[in-house]
Amino acid sequence: MLNEVALNACLYDLDDAGITPPTPQAARAILEKDSGFVADLNQYYTKSGNYGLDTADRDIMFDLIAKHFTSQHWPLNMDGEEASKQFRLKLIDGLLAEGWSYKFRAEDPDDK
Fold first, then answer.
1. Which of 8, 45, 79, 86 could join 75 via S-S bond, C-beta 3.0 to 4.6 A?
2. Tens digit of pLDDT for each residue in 17-76?
3. Quick check: helix, strand or coil at residue 81?
4. Which residues does 35 contact at the CB level (< 8 Å), separation at least 6?
5. Cα 47 vs. chain centroid, distance in angstroms?
6. What's the burial of 67, exposed, middle or buried (CB within 10 Å: 0-12/13-18/19+)?
């Protein structure tokens, strides 16, 4: 199970990206599908603070979120603008279908 400090770091980065789960447990359920990721986060995120994840961990988290809602990987910076826009549209549909909210526009550049 993802510890509270690690979960809060994940929630911090999701919020920073404009993605809000209906409950922290909704995010936890998605992230806990990867037991190796959970083990790593639980090992390294043990001290409370108002901060997000390190870059590598954040990339893994966003990929888990993307796979859950879109069945594809989170776009990389080298992906074309149209591909990124299509990804965001699909992500928005998936988020809304499960009661999540978002604060980004499909046309905006990906800013994770």
1. 79
2. 999 999 999 999 999 999 999 999 999 999 887 789 999 999 999 999 999 999 999 987
3. helix
4. none
5. 21
6. middle
Sequence-ordered strand ranges (E) for 9-68: 19-20
Q: How far apart are CA 17 and CA 27, in angstroms?
A: 14
**CA nearest neighbour of 7 among 17, 29, 19, 22:** 29
Residue 90 confidence class, pLDDT cut points 50, 70, 90: very high
Note whether 64 and 57 are within 8 A (CB).
no
Q: Which of 43, 57, 81 is nearest to 9 (CA)?
A: 57
Please give the structure tokens belonging to residue 111.
């800013």
